[in-house]
Amino acid sequence: MPCIWCPTTKPCFPGWSRCWPRGGVLAVQMPHAFDEPAYRCITEAVRAGPWRDLLEPLLRPMPVTSALKYSRLLAVRVRHLDIWETVYHLLLRGPDPVAAWMRASALAPFLRRLSDEETRAAFYEEYRRPRRPVPYPEDRPRWGGRSFRFGGFLIAQGPVMRS
Known about the structure:
This protein has one domain (about 25-135, about 145-155). Helices cover about 35% and strands about 20% of the residues. The chain has seven helices and three strands; from the N terminus they run H-E-H-H-H-E-H-H-H-E. Strands 1-3-2 form a three-stranded antiparallel β-sheet. Helix 2 crosses helix 7 (about 115-130). The radius of gyration is 19 Å and the shape is globular. The mean pLDDT is about 80. Its EC number is 2.1.1.144. It is an enzyme of class 2 (transferase). InterPro entries: Trans_acon_MeTrfase_C.
């Protein structure tokens, strides 16, 4: 199966399982970081400024559910199911490295929607505004950067059962 992104995966799995050949196996890696502070701060920044009406439609509910819910959805379709979760710690350096990472990824659609550079800069500054507790404290004594948690889980299943 090709590598694709679905805005919401739950409805996709039953359809995908009908397409696998008998004995087929699927492995899926799914991001599971949407409840991390860096993502929650996007919602706060969107709702805090004059851009709210323009940007709020870009907010979306959590696109990935829990590993347990996926296991319940898929267990009836396969003979064997493994699900495991991993938390990656991206070691980021530089000035405000988590905000810079998010600017190039999850913040990009919000920034593109804003029409002028001044408003984009104001929105980015609102996103960067200090919040308490500090979600990603600097680890200066050890290596001078920040550890950015990025979770994910992998679903591996097979062989597919046919009725």
